[in-house]
Amino acid sequence: MYIEIHMQFMKFLQRLLKFYALASLIAVDLYATNATCCYTLLSTLKHTAGGDLKHFLKT
């Protein structure tokens, strides 16, 4: 009886760990995607602002 309970508990822990690992991967992926989007946006704004500034300085 105790062995069955122990085995069920171990299976539950294993499922919980798998779920936690999957959730962590999804969270890291979302964070990386958002960071990339923010970097791309800032990069674009910087280049656009720099281009506008150069254009105004030339005229």
List its traits.
59 residues; mainly alpha; 1 helix; 97% helix; 0% strand
Q: Which radius of gyration do the C-alpha atoms yield?
A: 25 Å
Instruction: Determine the N-to-C terminus distance.
Output: 87 Å
Number of helices: 1
Report the biggest beta sheet as strand number plus sense, adding barrel if it closes: none
Mean of pLDDT:
70
Strand content: under 5%
**How would you classify the helix and strand content by structural class?**
mainly alpha
DSSP summary, beta strand count? 0
Segments where pLDDT lies below 50 for 5+ residues?
Answer: none
Helix content: over 70%
| SSE series | H
**What general outline do the C-alpha atoms trace?**
rod-shaped
Short structural summary:
The chain has 59 residues and is mainly α.
Describe this structure in words.
The chain is mainly α and 59 residues long. 97% of the residues lie in helices and 0% in strands. It contains 1 helix and no strands. It has one helix at 2-58. It is rod-shaped, with a radius of gyration of 25 Å.
